[in-house]
Amino acid sequence: MSSNIEAAGSDVFGIESQLSETRLFPPSPAFSGQAHIGSMEQYRTEHARSINDPEGFWGEIAKELHWFKPWDKVLEWDAPDAKWFTGGTTNLSYNCLDRQVKAGRGADTAIIWEGEPVDGANGPEVRHISYAELLEETCKCANALKSLGVAKGDIVTVYMPMVPELAIAMLACARIGAAHSVIFGGFAASAIVDRVVDAKSKVVITADGGWRRGSIVPLKDNVDAACAQTDLVEHVLVVKRTAQDITWDAKRDHWWHDAVDKASDDCPCEEMDSEDLAFVLYTSGTTGKPKGIMHTTGGYMVHTYLTSKLTFDLHSSEPGTPPKQIYWCTADIGWVTGHSYIVYGIMPNCVPTVMYEGAPNFPDSGRFWDMVERHKVTQFYTAPTAIRAFMKWGDEWPQKHDLSSLTVLGTVGEPINPEAWMWYHKMIGAESCPIVDTWWQTETGGQMITPLPGATPTKPGSCTLPFFGVDAAIVNEHGEEMPANTGGLLAIRKPWPGMLRGILGDRERFIETYWSTIRTKEGEPYYKAGDGARRDDDGYFWVMGRIDDVMNISGHRIGTMELESALVSHSAVVEAAVVGVPHEIKGTGIAAFCTLAPGVTADSALRDTLRTHVAKEIGPFAKPDMLRFTDALPKTRSGKIMRRLLKDIASGAEKTGDTTTLEDYSVLAKLKESDEG
Ligand code: WTA
Asked: What's the pLDDT tens digit per position in 317-336?
């Protein structure tokens, strides 16, 4: 195990400097004075209470939201199965929309949407959508879905650009009790097929295209290609966004502007049992098949609501008055960050949420900072990979803009190296905005380890301390806690409201992946996050990275097996091995080693072909950064590919470590000589 953890550690950009990090950044008294949680004493008291009496703690929070019927019991825990707020009924769409309209916020802004194209002096297209408008659109979409035969319990696949209709589609599904499965728009057709089939989706919602860096992403073409490979899909609802010519199947395809705009705007919410499925979100695991992570309604809602409120210190304004805060998370809704911290956690807090369609460097590298200035963004949440790109693009871009509206900065998705943290702190936060480095996962539903901006003194590179109700620990495989400053497995000991309830259709994999490795002496299973981490002398967590065959590329999770299967699906490739290597911007880059079929010429044209092939099979974000051809792959005597060795070779390491189990030493020599991609 320890070698695994070290391997993960060395994988992560800047980890060595993180571990000797001693700088401490306490929140300013002014910030703490107005914050929900304004001191470490308050944090510690509340945290202790949330751990000792989770039912009392979470029951009180849940009362801040709307329930049609109150719960009988806050928590039923029969490891690994948790049921939260049992017997209670509620609806996510109601808590995002109806509750606000009923409280007199109908005219207040729910979403500030900005499109990517910039039209000369007119600038970009911007829409301020009120709770009342969003409710009306959501009801219409919900009725349109019903007329396409969608009923409670169905799973609707959503493959869309970052347009308001994406949030509307999700809220419409939630409204009628259908679960959604949102697929990131960067995935290719075959990824859509796998997910549609796994979820048995009969209805897909998409758009003709989406804007990305001035080009059109052909979403509808990808859906068409996917539909050609499965006859499951009966209806495709299409938003007109880019207006280029697309192919049309009159029996199957429906324009959003026909089906939705004509539908009735009256659609009462389905009363959802707290444990009814809210959504499925696919994420990469250690096998080639993505996992459909299942999240249910009540617990997820309460967890994302409270973490949004406290981690970003959200304060709504009085109904009918201008907002005090404008919150912006730059993630794509196709990933869990967008689900939880653009839509479901933010809207119940009644603070406007910014949704941006496009790239951070279109039309120039100052786009984000221009948007912060124009929209007067107060809370800004992004990923370390974006911060590293901004650093590279140069200080002049943020310096051109007035960023003084900002009060809290957030990061998520991968470990942040202290250099990037300091740049964010100085250049974007003017040394006066607390930085919340939030550790969590698709599986956890919401943030788990994070500073609270008015309380926690931060250290660059550490996600600091567990959120309320989260009992996190660094343990070995026997569930024994590791001493301070010693690497181990990041594990969670008690259930939390937003936790996954399973993997769609695969109970065994659910238990095997998360609950079978770590147990207490009493046999109680812990949740295994799949990350290696340490705690320092102050109990702060330092996440080092994945310890399984999952890589984190620019904050996007992708399994090495998925990449390897994509490579060998090309006729030129016989065998492939993929490893992560340190990458200046992406955090981790993809290095692929391929052995070729007899007679195939290893040249740069083939390298390009294979890279493009991976982009076509999985999506452009999965293109290998480095691709090497080799006669054979280094294997142990039992036939396992020696990834550690490949990692060292790919990162150009001098020392290749212990190779005594290597089957054929000549393979190693050949790999070292082989031409780099
Ligand atoms: C990594 C994204 C260090 C980690 C919300 C985790 C992080 C995986 C952090 C989940 C962080 C996420 N510091 N590592 N603040 N946040 N990770 O499912 O390896 O896309 O297991 O969820 O990202 O990625 P996922």
From this structure: 999 999 999 999 999 999 99
Cα angle value 529/481/534 (rounded, 5°): 60
CA of 346 to the centre of ligand 1 (A): 20
Instruction: Give the contacts of 61 (CB within 8 A, at least 6 positions apart).
Output: 302, 305, 306
The CA 383 to ligand 1 mean position distance, Å, reads 10
User: What's the CA gap between 455 and 43, in Å, rounded?
Assistant: 7
528 CB near ligand 1 (under 6 Å): no
Q: Could you give the CA distance from residue 86 to residue 138 in angstroms, rounded to a whole number?
A: 27
* pLDDT tens digits, 601-643: 999 999 999 999 999 999 999 999 999 998 888 888 888 888 8
Q: Which of 387, 385, 381 is nearest to 426 (CA)?
A: 387
Do the bridges between strand 556-559 and strand 550-553 make them parallel or antiparallel, or are there none, so unpaired? antiparallel
Residue 203's H or E segment, with its range, is: strand 203-207
pLDDT tens digits for range 406-438: 999 999 999 999 999 999 999 999 999 999 999
pTM for the full predicted model: 0.93
Query: Which helix (H) or strand (E) is 105 found in, with range?
Result: none
Closest alpha carbon to 434 in 426, 425, 421 = 425
pLDDT at 656 over 60: no
DSSP 388-453: HHHHHH-THHHHTS--TT--EEEEESSPPPHHHHHHIIIIITTTTS-EEEEB--TTTSS--B---T
3-state secondary structure of 529: strand
- CB of 441 shorter than 6 A to ligand 1: yes
